[in-house]
UniProtKB/TrEMBL annotation:
Domain of life where this protein originates: Eukaryota
Alphabetical list of InterPro entries matching this protein: Split_barrel_FMN-bd, YjeF_N_dom, YjeF_N_dom_sf, YJEFN_prot_NAXE-like
One GO CC term, this protein: mitochondrion
Organism taxonomic ancestry: Eukaryota, Viridiplantae, Streptophyta, Embryophyta, Tracheophyta
SUPFAM superfamilies: FMN-binding split barrel, YjeF N-terminal domain-like
GO MF, one example: NAD(P)HX epimerase activity
Residue ranges constituting the YjeF N-terminal domain according to the UniProt record: 128-348
Name the UniProt record assigns to this protein: NAD(P)H-hydrate epimerase
Signal sequence annotation: none
Its EC number(s): 5.1.99.6
Length: 518
């Protein structure tokens, strides 16, 4: 975020800026680059014996709502199990027409707001199995294809909620069936996403599909651990435990060794609750293992109420949707999955990030701070952070009054903003205007909406004399309404750091300051 008030240094405007030397057009400003990293809180205050996070479906027929939330990642996870949870029957009005439509974010938000949670119903265990047979029979899908689709959703959802920089150690516990196969595929994807997976696969299935999945993991040197090798308290060694033991074919009571493994997950969940803070999280694929497929946790808890619940299934053919009266939610953008259920309630007063981050040693620091900045900025770009060039620009007027504004910095300015997890860069120094030609070029390179925004925004106020504001404001309103193709114009001013007097890099537990000349 950039905050700032940039002044022209001329006429009336100059009078507001005491830091501008007489006759000069430079002022001083500070830019703060703030991270966009998504902070998730983990509410363990739910009744279930385990399952902090569930992907795809909770089969419980009382699970209250399928509030949709956009998940930016693809979500292949939609196994049939998905259907189970998604088993939305007809009355969910907003979703009753176009199953595959894309929505703008505001339209999507509106749909979510209209979502009628009480109308949600669910597939039965039998329906789920039948859908499976149909998919892999007349509809021509193969099990490994569905598995890959489903589990890419699992992996992308995990990476959405539990970032590898905080939750790198992932234990996947795999059962003997397809749900276990899901776990093997998840481990592979997560390895490629930067996690450090471990796999516990005590009852291996001697089928080529599973043998191939195991070979793929071995080729990646992903460790396989026996049940005996697992620590009794999983939370010490693993940040995430993926429960891929059983899906919709589970019945009866769990037999060894899964009875013991499920018990460890229950203990993990209970420990999390007792301590009252996040330790390691449990992610269940389809349903928490041990649950009755339709009745949920028969030992007490009656519905899944973990903080994160995702649903895949964007590949569902219309024939299936029609036959089972599935009303699939709108998937945002190109996502293969959606968040369902209420997003976690956030206690604002408890919003504190745990600044644990990758190792960052003195010898890794670039000698030239600008190079260090570019390195972090490149990392931020590579990590896919949204608008890493968003910054806070602060300035001080002649009256000594500081102001700050959010801005995006472009290439004609000194480009900063970089976060690698929690990294932050602060730059201080006098600024100068770039040439009119460059300013104009930059202005016309922006999308029309941004141009209009620049024209009518407060930020422009400081770039123009009051006469100009009125003139542009009136003209632009007319233009916007009557001619969306005519070129816009603005006497835009762009500033850059003529000298960097100070640049500071903030990293967890670490502060690097470089002052000019030192
Ligand atoms: N076929 C598909 O379309 C796909 C299914 N997927 C996943 O596969 C799951 C269903 O797969 P499966 O039908 O293989 O079933 P599961 O993976 O749910 O489990 C079946 C296996 O568990 C064993 N089992 C059942 N009850 C047990 C108990 N009480 N104690 C110990 N072992 C028990 C069975 O003997 C069998 O080996 C879904 O829930 C989903 O997660 C995904 O792989 C995507 C593709």
């Amino acid at each position: 975020m950039v905050v700032g008030e940039v002044n022209s240094g001329e006429g009336d405007a100059e009078a507001q800026l005491p830091l501008v030397p007489k006759g000069s057009s430079s002022i001083s400003m500070t830019c703060l680059c703030l991270t966009h990293s998504i902070t998730q809180t983990h509410n363990h205050n739910h009744n279930l014996p385990h399952a902090t996070t569930t992907f795809s479906s909770s089969l419980h027929n009382r699970n209250p709502l399928f509030q949709l939330f956009s998940v930016s990642n693809q979500f292949p996870l939609l196994s049939r199990a998905l259907f189970q949870s998604i088993i939305l029957r007809p009355r969910i009005r907003p979703f009753s027409t176009n199953l595959t439509a894309s929505y703008s974010s505001s339209a999507f938000a509106q749909i979510m707001a209209n979502f009628d949670a009480d109308s949600v119903t669910y597939l039965t265990q039998r329906d789920a199995a039948e859908i499976d047979e149909t998919l892999m029979g007349p509809l021509g899908f193969s099990v490994d294809q569905l598995m890959e689709l489903d589990v890419l959703s699992v992996a992308t959802s995990i990476s959405e909620v539990y970032k590898p920089c905080e939750h790198s150690r992932v234990l996947t516990i795999c059962g003997p069936g397809n749900n276990g196969g899901d776990g093997l595929v998840a481990a592979r994807h997560l390895h490629h996403f930067g996690y450090k997976p471990f796999v516990c696969y005590p009852k291996r299935t001697p089928k080529p599909l599973y043998a191939g999945l195991v070979t793929q993991l071995e080729a990646l040197s992903i460790p396989f651990l026996s049940v005996e090798e697992l620590p009794s308290d999983l939370s010490n060694d693993f940040d995430v435990v993926i429960d891929a033991m059983f899906g919709f074919s589970f019945h009866g009571s769990p037999r060894p060794p899964f009875d013991d493994l499920i018990q460890r997950l229950v203990s993990l969940h209970n420990n999390n609750n007792q301590i009252g803070q996040k330790r390691s999280v449990i992610v269940s694929v389809d349903i928490p293992s041990g649950w009755h497929v339709e009745e949920g946790d028969v030992d007490g808890a009656k519905k899944f109420c973990g903080p994160h619940h995702f649903l895949g299934g964007r590949f569902v053919p219309p024939a299936i949707a029609e036959k089972y009266k599935l009303i699939l939610p709108p998937y945002p953008g190109t996502s293969m999955c959606v968040r369902i259920g209420k997003p976690p309630q956030i206690d604002i007063s408890a919003l504190r990030e745990n600044y644990i981050s990758p190792e960052f040693l003195e010898e890794q620091v670039e000698v030239d701070p600008i190079n260090q900045f570019h390195k972090w900025f490149d990392d931020a770009l590579a990590a896919g952070l949204k608008e890493p060039n968003a910054m806070a620009l602060s300035t001080v007027g002649k009256d000594g009054k500081p102001t700050a504004e959010a801005m995006l910095f472009g290439k004609c300015l000194f480009v900063f903003a970089c976060y690698y997890c929690f990294a932050l860069v602060r730059v201080e120094g006098p600024v100068q205007k770039v040439s009119d030609e460059e300013s104009e070029q930059y202005f016309h390179s922006r999308p029309r909406g941004s141009q209009i925004g620049a024209i009518v925004s407060k930020q422009v106020y400081f770039c123009l004399t009051s006469n100009q504001i009125v003139m542009y404001g009136n003209d632009m309103s007319h233009e916007m309404v009557n001619n969306s193709t005519s070129p816009l114009d603005l006497d835009l001013e762009i500033w850059y750091f003529s000298t960097i007097s100070s640049i500071a890099f903030f990293f967890p537990l670490f502060l690097l300051c470089c002052n000019s000349g030192s």
